[in-house]
Design goal:
By secondary structure, the chain is of the alpha/beta class. It has 17 helices and 20 strands. Helices cover 31% and strands 21% of the residues.
Length: 507
């Protein structure tokens, strides 16, 4: 099987960009899709169809449909036939588009797939309005199974023929990209799929209310991908528009959840994902049908509020590791209760009110581990440590749960941390007491939990995830530590403390 390499598609895009003027491309809202994004978008489609009909409106150089074809051909159970219909009015890009279409045809033919390509040099909006009005796509099998699009980003002049035709078709939109998406929805067959990259402006605000309402009525929203940096998606075109990618299915019942993913830029191998209940994305009682994307909500979004925390775990001189004691491998060294020659063994069951409560006589887990030459590499010196649970159930209120290991409460020269825990340390040893207390307050805050959930859809809290988190500065941690007495503050107090700390940073 022959698959065109990613760099071939990007070569077409870069060739066109170098041969044209960016100002001209900007005036028509035409920014060609990078190959990495095109392939990522194609990967969102669900597979299994035997006969595929792809629509790429405003195709440009054909990056999107070509990536879609490559993805379909690479599948184990690939289609028997693929038809591609594309629209493009820019005569300067047609030679590049024609070249891309021929590459897709050659790829399909070499893999035994029937291919038909149709380049329509006409305005997609005007053509689609006519076709939907005349019900040409009502013929069984004539609609599209796949729509993949990066539509032009441009305001619609209300005095144009296009604007009047859209209005007469009851399609009320303020921007060309919304018109492209709306008409593409109409051209999908039942259970047909759409993957689009557009500005996120349609997610809220009054200008897109009708579009938003119709989109959510006609389509089942299944996935949204966010870019953490607005400069990365079309960086070489100097586009600062905040873009999102979304996958939706025509006629699908409202899903129970939506997959949210995020990447710093085009490094999709490091994408963070989570599953969010649909009613948290689109609130049932919201008449405006806002689509809530908390990761970039500039007022209350956790990512935005965390910007006041400018340090990192490395800058603090700290480390975080996974507990060394894997109990089933060290079973012969474990003891239910402390004995001579043993030291504490700490499990998640020892967490209580933000501190480690040891021993726990009524628990099923052992409380101690023998200290010997055989177990020396499993133990750490006594000191202040901050522990977090690696696993939590979906029902638990917080994903990130932290507790302080206070050596003055336990009085042992060494300690073992079980493998279901992560522990914060300073070069493998204990932390300064004040730093540990401040760190525990921070990790137990709701803002940390919300931030973590934005990037992790599973219940496991890995040391790697904790290393990537933003952290308060050393001075901020010392301020937070003052609130820790015999117990850590309750949740409401912790959240108030963190809110005040963030407000102080903004002033």
């Amino acid at each position: 099987m022959v698959i065109e390499p990613v760099h071939t598609l990007d070569h077409v895009r870069k060739s066109f960009n170098s041969a044209t003027n960016r100002t001209d491309r900007s005036q028509i809202g035409q920014f060609l899709t990078p190959a990495a994004i095109a392939h990522f978008m194609s990967s969102m489609f669900e597979t299994g169809l035997r006969h595929v009909r792809i629509l790429d409106p405003g195709a440009g150089a054909g990056m999107l449909f070509a990536a879609c074809v490559e993805t379909l051909v690479s599948q184990k159970d690939r289609p028997l036939s693929i038809e591609v219909v594309v629209y493009e009015t820019d005569s300067t890009i047609l030679p590049y588009l024609d070249e891309t279409m021929k590459r897709s045809q050659s790829l399909c033919v070499s893999n035994g797939i029937v291919f038909h390509g149709n380049i329509r040099q006409e305005d997609f909006v005007l053509a689609a309005i006519t076709e939907t009005k005349e019900s040409l796509f009502a013929v069984p099998g004539a609609r599209f199974t796949h729509v993949i699009l990066n539509p032009p980003y441009k305001k619609i002049n209300s005095q144009t023929v296009m604007s009047r035709m859209l209005y007469s078709s009851d399609i009320e939109v303020a921007n060309l990209y919304a018109a492209f998406v709306w008409l593409s929805m109409l051209l999908l067959e039942p259970e047909g799929q759409m993957v689009a990259i557009t500005p996120r402006s349609f997610c809220n605000g009054p200008y897109f209310k009708k579009f938003r309402t119709e989109f959510l009525r006609m389509m089942g929203l299944k996935r949204i991908h966010l870019f953490e940096s607005r400069k990365k998606a079309f960086g070489d075109d100097n586009v600062l528009q905040e873009n999102i990618i979304y996958h939706a299915v025509r006629g699908l019942q409202t899903p129970k959840s939506v997959t949210i993913s995020a990447s710093e830029g085009l490094d999709f191998d490091r994408t963070h994902t989570l599953s969010v209940p649909y009613d948290q994305i689109v609130h049932p009682a919201d008449r405006d049908m806002f689509i809530h994307l908390g990761i970039h909500d500039t007022d209350v979004g956790p990512a935005e509020r965390m910007r006041c925390l400018t340090s990192s775990i490395n800058e603090l001189g700290l480390g975080v590791s996974t507990g060394r004691v894997v109990d089933f491998r060290a079973r012969e060294h474990l003891r239910q209760s402390p004995e001579q020659e043993t030291v504490p063994l700490i499990y998640p069951c020892h967490f209580l009110n933000g501190f480690i409560n040891w021993p726990v006589q009524s628990g099923k887990k052992p409380n101690a581990i023998v200290s010997s030459s055989e177990t020396s590499n499993l133990l750490v010196e006594d000191g202040f440590y901050v522990l977090t649970k690696r696993f939590s159930s979906k029902e638990q209120q917080r994903r990130v749960m932290a507790a302080i290991y206070d050596p003055t409460r336990i009085g042992a020269p060494l300690v073992g941390f079980e493998n279901h825990l992560n522990y914060f340390h300073k070069q493998g040893k204990g932390l300064p007491a004040d730093l540990a207390k401040g760190l525990a307050v921070y990790l137990n805050s709701t803002i940390v939990d919300q931030y973590f959930r934005l990037f992790s859809g599973h219940t496991q809290v890995n040391a790697t995830d904790l290393r990537k988190m933003p952290y308060p500065t050393h001075e901020q941690l010392l301020r937070l530590s003052r609130y820790v007495k015999e117990t850590i503050p309750d949740q409401e107090t912790i959240d108030d403390i963190m809110e005040k700390e963030c407000l102080n940073c903004e002033q």
